[in-house]
Specification:
Strand 1 and strand 2 form a beta hairpin. The mean pLDDT is 91. A six-stranded mixed β-sheet has the order 3-4-2-1-5-6, with helices on both faces. A six-stranded parallel β-sheet has the order 9-8-12-13-7-14. It contains 28 helices and 22 strands.
């Protein structure tokens, strides 16, 4: 009688043969795409578009020999139809007859792979997961949903192994490990704006990226036209996540930080945290609106337009009515100004008709473009630009007072005024907080175009004015907001997701809480959670659901031996497979890097190696850019100094909370200074 192991080996060999055939079918699909000739299109423009589409299609059909085309299988046996098998993978593969060989994980049928359970089997009788090593199937694990007792005691081991698998380099996709609660977010309709409050290790970033991929698959035509954008906290974070969407076949998604979205190279000054916080206050939106629209001058003289031997007049009171009507239309300031010459010309034509003339549209256009009308428009509705408006506000106390109204106190106005105003707007030294204000002004003057969908990660760190800027980019679309109130590390960090979503212009939204930690082990999350009562009272602690509790080591050191202890800790962490993050206070990064280099420990630095294609096992990370990153093992240097580098205790402890929760398996703390009191005894 054949042994169970023999039966398993036979089944695994059968699945490997199926994978080999799927690879050949994918290669056939790629060869077919490569054989198509875009030059045979009906015209040059169509040929260019077709060439672009074909190039994208060919790229999407590239096989990656390091992985497999599928990671799971479901056997479906509905009561009203035939039983079928579906292999679930990262992309669709079909045979020569067009029948599916591998089903895209985003297809509707794939929902059952992620959500089916013994209580709600969704017609699934068996769910199979595959173990993979360098592109070949090495194991399989079956879960019998109608007869759970047949699943055996090891169900879930492949899933756990995949979640905990060591890695170096950028973030990977999680299509094989998406959990039911994550899948519900991923497959939210394109019209729905979603806010995800996610504790460390709950996979919120991956959920947001996979939602973007699912939306592009399910609403391709709409989002191809309108676009999708991912906004992250810093360039290191974007480098970390940059490979996820391309690995899922999606290369048409833009990536930006809030600085690159708004800055455009104009930031030239720093300012105190209290001034930056004030500039991020939502009251500034009303101040800027008042500054723009108060620029319109009430007319006191008639419009006079010479034509031939006659002069045509439009009385000042009629001009005032035109100005009021344009201002009340709800269009942007500059757009309304562009309409004014034609409106004035129309009134001139009415005067001509009353005098017995019969002017046509050409006459109206000529009047609108005449020097007299242009000069008059400039006198009552001056042309504005964002830099000019903000330069005047920060330079002129009277202008700021008039625009402030009752929204800002005298003290707040004095905080905003420059001590030494720049002579011209071109010489102005703008700060980072000014960028959101310039963007607000830009939208007041001419509407900022909207995209179809925006994924905003680490949203808790943005000021209300920055949130408004992001909201403009999805004013006619939807947004996926990702963040954790406990990880707010700016003085203006939001305390309420309802407030944040209101500033984004998305009062109508779904709020989802992810509190099951799949990535951060229990011993690490429990240690970091000691900070929560001080820095985020009332916020529940995340729960690690991993069987592996992880490892925590706290290594005190004499100040003179601190660097040597850090090197020893890094060498021990790097002795095993997987990534190592050495997270240090920003001011100490250079010294820590030098100590590692002197000891012969090869490493990268995330404060300067942006765009570096080399994958380093060891990365030295400034504490200020650690947010959103994860490493198999982390070595945290001087927690007290990391906390003390922030402007206040709450922000400092939140920064430390972020740093302590970057580890997937092990956290080592090396310190010479006493640990923060909130962490308690080791």
């Amino acid at each position: 009688m054949p042994s169970p192991d023999h039966g398993l080996a036979t089944e695994l060999a059968r699945e490997q043969a199926y994978l080999d055939d799927a690879r050949e079918q994918l290669a056939r699909m790629r060869r077919l795409a490569e054989s198509l000739d875009a030059s045979k299109a009906s015209d040059a423009v169509s040929g260019e578009v077709l060439g672009w589409v074909l190039a994208r299609r060919i790229a999407s059909l590239q096989d990656d020999p390091r992985t497999t085309l599928f990671f799971g299988r479901i056997d479906v046996d509905p009561a009203d139809g035939p039983a079928e098998q579906f292999h679930i993978g990262r992309r669709h593969v079909s045979d020569e007859a067009g029948d599916p060989v591998v089903v895209d994980w985003r297809a509707p049928i794939s929902t059952a792979f992620y959500r089916a359970s013994p209580l709600e089997p969704m017609d699934v009788v068996l769910r199979r997961r595959f173990g993979v090593d360098r592109g070949r199937l090495t194991a399989l694990e079956d879960e019998h949903l109608r007869e759970p007792a047949h699943s055996g005691g090891t169900a879930g081991s492949i899933l756990a192994a995949e979640i905990e698998r060591p890695r170096t380099g950028p973030m990977r996709d999680i299509v094989s490990t998406i959990q039911p609660e994550q899948d519900e977010i991923v497959r939210s309709d394109v019209a729905v704006s979603v806010c995800v409050q996610g504790a460390p290790g709950t996979g919120k970033t991956a959920v947001g990226l996979h939602r973007a991929a699912w939306l592009l698959y399910s609403f391709r035509e709409r989002l191809d036209r309108s676009g999708v954008l991912v906004v992250g906290p810093n360039r290191a974070f974007l480098d970390h996540i940059g490979a996820v969407l391309p690995s899922l076949g999606e290369v048409r998604v833009g990536h930006a930080t809030i600085e690159s979205l708004l800055d455009h190279g104009r930031v030239r000054a720093d300012e105190p945290a209290d001034v930056a916080t004030l500039k991020g206050d939502p009251r500034l939106a009303a101040v800027l609106r008042r500054a723009v629209w108060s620029s319109i001058v009430r007319p006191t003289e008639a419009v006079v337009v010479p034509r031939g031997v006659r002069k045509w007049r439009v009385p000042a009171h009629e001009v005032a009515d035109v100005l009021d009507e344009l201002a009340a239309r709800g269009v942007r300031y500059s757009a309304a100004r562009d309409l004014l010459p034609q409106r004035l010309a129309h009134h001139v034509l009415l005067e001509m008709e009353r005098a017995g003339d019969a002017p046509d549209d050409r006459v109206q256009d000529a009047v609108a473009k005449s020097a007299a009308v242009k000069k008059y428009v400039s006198s009552v509705w001056p042309a504005l630009d964002p830099q000019g408006v903000l330069h005047r506000l920060w330079s002129d106390a009277d202008a700021l007072r008039a625009a402030a109204g009752d929204d800002l106190t005298e003290r707040e106005q004095s905080m905003l005024l420059w001590d030494k105003p720049a002579r011209t707007k071109g010489a102005a030294r703008w700060s980072r907080a000014d960028m959101a204000l310039l963007d607000e002004l830009d939208d007041l003057l001419r509407r900022v175009p909207s995209l179809g969908h925006v994924v905003l990660d680490e949203a808790q760190d943005l000021s209300p004015m920055q949130l408004r800027a992001v909201g403009r980019r999805c004013s006619t679309g939807s947004v996926t907001v990702l963040g954790d109130i406990a990880q707010g590390t700016t003085p203006w960090a939001t305390a309420s997701w309802d407030d944040a979503m209101r500033h984004l212009g998305k009062d109508d939204h779904d709020l989802v809480v992810l509190d099951r930690g799949f990535r951060v082990p229990a011993v690490v999350i429990e240690y970091a959670a000691r900070l929560l009562p001080v820095m985020a009272p009332g916020l529940g602690a995340p729960v690690s659901v991993r069987d592996n509790p992880g490892r925590l080591e706290i290594r005190p050191a004499d100040p003179s031996a601190l660097d040597a202890e850090v090197v020893l800790a890094v060498e021990r962490a790097a002795s095993a497979v997987g990534s190592v993050g050495v997270i240090a206070p920003d001011a100490d990064v250079e010294r820590v890097s030098a100590a590692l280099a002197a000891a012969g420990v090869s490493h990268g630095r995330l404060d300067r190696d942006h765009g570096d294609d080399e994958d380093h096992q060891v990365e030295v990370v400034p504490a200020s850019v650690a947010k959103g990153l994860e490493f198999d093992r982390t070595v945290v240097v001087e927690p007290a100094a990391i906390a003390a580098a922030e402007p206040d205790e709450r922000t400092g402890l939140r920064r430390l909370y972020v740093v302590l929760t970057r580890a997937v398996s092990e956290l080592t703390i090396v310190h010479a200074q006493p640990l923060p009191e909130a962490l308690g005894a080791a």
